[in-house]
Structure formats: C-alpha cells, structure tokens
Amino acid sequence: MDVGFIGLGSMGIAMARNIAKAGHKVHAWNRSPVDPSEATGLEILKTPREALQADAVLTMLSDDAAIREVLLAPDLLSSLRPGSVHAVTSTISVDFAKELAAKHQALGRAYLSAPVFGRPEVAAAAQLNVVIGGPKAAADRLAPVFGAIGKKTWYMGERPEQANAAKIAGNMMIAMAIEAMAEATVLTESNGVAPKDFFELVLEALFGGRVYQSYSAKIVAGDDTPGFKMSLGLKDLRLATAAIEKSGKRLPMLDTLRNQMTEAVQAGLGDKDWSGVASFLRRS
C-alpha cells in the first residue's frame, strides 16, 4: 500500500519507519528538515500536498493548531486522492475531530481519528495501542497499516470523535496516576520513607500496572527526561476540560490536576517529562 505520512517528530518517524519495514511504500513530509540517517526506508517529500496522493494518509502533527496550519489554512484536504483514507494519529480535541470529519465528508473522502497510546520507545518497537473512531470500512482498509505500528487496534465507534474522547480520557487518567504517585512520594518522604522502598510496596501490593511501574521508576530516579513533555500533558488536560464542559458536566479531580500542572509549566518545567510534576511538588 502507498502511505503518505505527515509529521516526523519522535513518534512519527518511528511509526513511518515501521510502516515501511512492513513492506508499504511510505512518502513522508515534515515541517523541519529530516536527518537522512533517521529516514531509512522513507521517501522524503518537499511538500505535504504530495503525501495526500497516497492510498492512505497518516497525520502525526502535535495539535489542532499544527493541523490547521499545515492542512486547512492552505486548503490541502481538497488534494486528497479520491478513494484514499486520511487518519489523524495525534491527540486532538473532540470538537476539531468533528470539524475534520465534516470537512472530509463534504469532499467525499474517508476520515478516521486514530490516536495512539505509547511513548517514543513504544512506537519504535511497533507496540502502540491504536484507538480508532470512524467508518468501520475505512478502519478495516487501514488495518495492515495500523498493524505495522501497534500491537492492538481498539475500535471505539463510527464517529471519529469517539476515539479522541477515549484517548483524552486515557491521558487524563495517566496524569491523575502520576499526580497520585507524586503526592504519595511527598507524604512518605516527609516521614522518612525512601521513595524506592515505598514504591516496591505499592507495586507489589496495590498497583502493578504499566503506568505505575514506568512512572514510579522515573520519580524514584528523579528522571525528568521527556518521553512525553509536560506542556503536551497540560494540553491534553485542557482538551479534557473543554470536552467535559461542552457536555455541561464537571470533573473536580481534572480541575485540580490541570491547575497543578499549569503551575509546574509556568515554573519552567514544560519541556520536562510530565512525571516531573513530582519534582515540582517535592521542591514546593
């Protein structure tokens, strides 16, 4: 299958390379120059318009604004080849997913929301969890592509925004788990308990899931090296806030966590890993 790929950041480059490794032809474009040594198996294009001529087009741009800038402002969606399927794999707002679906429908093109769970090292290992929303027939057509980047695909429903709601909610839960670990670290450290000893207890007796395992290790080591930047985590918490406010409801834990992470970003931790909220709490 010919695959167009737009957005070759730390996640996108790994995903594009895995699609190429699976035997697909990948025609890729990025807003900034790409190191040739990182682009093994990819045809690097000069314009995003060229990427839209493929059988399938995957977009991995950072947020709503980036997609608007690259695809909507220059009206590139009208360049999508008839019969192609466009899937946005980044985390975008529920409202923007609805807007994209409407624009594609007006053009007679298939659109999927396909955000992914996983950090760059998970993307490199082709072990992402791919969350799909949109027409089932279009999702089935892209199954070989999604199979090349992830260990499992989760279908949320016929409306694209259903996948975005699930992804935003999942990221919200990860952030809440990180905040819980950060606060527990402050409480136990203040009473002379070493974080390593505390988390050995917690992981064995209470919470053994992947989120607790990976982020407790970063908190114990004081490792704020970004796998997922705190500024992006805050963006997702804001997306969750916007989505729930649109429904006329309120999530108190979300409000508290968003305010906490806002303070951490304002304190200069935006480029640190979002588990760095623990370092922020320990200092403050």
Estimate the global geometry from the Cα principal axes: globular
Q: How big is the Rg? A: 20 Å
The CATH C-level name of the largest domain is: Alpha Beta
Oligomer: single chain
Structural class: alpha/beta
Low-confidence stretches: none
The ordered H/E elements are EHEEHEHEHEEHEHHEHHHHHH
Would you count the extended β strands for me?
Answer: 9
Alpha-carbon distance between the two ends: 53 Å
Give the CATH superfamily of the largest domain.
Answer: NAD(P)-binding Rossmann-like Domain
DSSP strand content: 5-15%
Read across the widest sheet, the strand sequence of neighbours is 3-2-1-4-5-6
Count helical runs. 13
What count of structural domains?
Answer: 2
CATH architecture of the largest domain: 3-Layer(aba) Sandwich
Q: Would you give the CATH topology of the largest domain?
A: Rossmann fold
Indicate the percent of residues in helices.
Answer: 40-55%
**Biggest sheet overview:** 6 strands, parallel
Return the average pLDDT rounded to an integer: 96
